[in-house]
Amino acid sequence: MAEAKIIPFMRIRVPMAVFSLIVVLIGLVSIVTKGLNLGLDFTGGTSVELAYVKPVEQAQVQEALEKAGIKDTVVQHVGTASHVLIRMPPQEKAGGEIGQRVLQAAQFDSQNKATLRQVDSVGSQVGSELYAQSLIALGLSLFLMMVYVAFRFRFKFAVGAVTSLIHDTLFVVGIFSIMGWPFDLTVLAAVLALIGYSINDTIVVFDRIRENFRKLRRADTIEILDISLTETLRRTIMTVATVVVVVVALLFLGGPALYWFSVAMLLGLFAGTYSSIYIATTYALAMGLNKEDFMIMPKSEFVEEDVVDVDEVKP
């Protein structure tokens, strides 16, 4: 490793920390003042499932519904291209009436008849309970991540890891709030998936840092952190590139149902990679990370006792 070029990541840790703080504060202010554009999963609404004789395009169904005056709908395929699920905000009419209205509006092709399969309604109270449970799940996952990292490494690392996860979450949610993009269960699923991805990347970095602290005895703390981050950089780039290819494919080919999930994943991949370097590691350093944290102390039975002169024990 001595012949390889070491990237001085820690040299700009202070400016990057300030940048992260500004971005997170802007997102947090937007969340508090503007709020999120919550989807039907959290606000409540009605879903109507239709079955067509032949495959149908989502855009055709949505256009037909808008012409009939049914606005703010989300159309997605269910199982096959001939079955569609239409989700809309809470309606004044009862479930059966709105189902028949949607069915009539969706009959845009006389050669491709649609039949009504199912109508479901989610009240606003149920949506609010689901939103509260989602926040609890998010908080519980962060707490359990901190417990795991504290047990696996040191508490200094645990606090840094959870700080980076909170940074990633606020980064993604803050952008959705600022831009006014819809925030539904698919986006929440992306956030939870990103927490798992980010902590995995962080643990890889932490494991290399611990290994180098024990191996490179003469290097100082900053140098060991730079070496460890440089050694894991190639693995990080390859992992991120692989996931980005899949997410981009979902973004362009997954349809409306997976569009915002893919957007949240792309934002989170950038934030997670960045935070593993400049949030988790920098915070551990700020808490006083040093070689003593990783020194292997000898067991008590192997500790040398006071040396006794041989001549003193001779008769």
Describe the structure.
- The chain is an alpha+beta fold and 315 residues long.
- It has two domains: 9-37 and 126-292, Up-down Bundle (Multidrug efflux transporter AcrB transmembrane fold), CATH 1.20.1640.10; 45-122, Alpha-Beta Plaits, CATH 3.30.70.3400.
- It is built from ten helices and six strands.
- The protein has helices spanning 13-33, 40-43, 58-67, 95-105, 124-152, 155-179, 185-215, 221-253, 256-286, 310-313, and strands spanning 37-38, 45-52, 74-78, 80-88, 114-122, 182-183.
- β3 (74-78) and β4 form a beta hairpin.
- α6 runs antiparallel to α7 (185-215) and α6 (155-179) packs antiparallel against α9.
- The termini are far apart.
- Residues 305-315 have low confidence and may be disordered.
For the structure shown, list the relevant keywords.
315 residues; alpha+beta; Multidrug efflux transporter AcrB transmembrane fold; Alpha-Beta Plaits; 2 domains; four-stranded antiparallel beta sheet; two-stranded parallel sheet; 10 helices; 11% strand
- The count of strands amounts to 6
Broad shape: elongated
In N-to-C order, the SSE pattern is: HEHEHEEHEHHEHHHH
Counting DSSP H or I runs of 4 or more residues, the number of helices is 10
- The named CATH superfamily of the largest domain: Multidrug efflux transporter AcrB transmembrane domain
- Strand order, biggest sheet? 3-4-2-5
Taken together, the total number of domains comes to 2
Query: Could you state the oligomeric state of the chains shown?
Result: single chain
- CATH class descriptor of the largest domain: Mainly Alpha
> How much of the sequence is in beta strands?
5-15%
Please tell me how large the radius of gyration is.
Answer: 27 Å
> What summary fits the major beta sheet?
4 strands, antiparallel
Q: Within the CATH hierarchy, at the fold level, what is the topology of the largest domain?
A: Multidrug efflux transporter AcrB transmembrane fold
Helical coverage, percent range:
55-70%
CATH architecture of the largest domain: Up-down Bundle
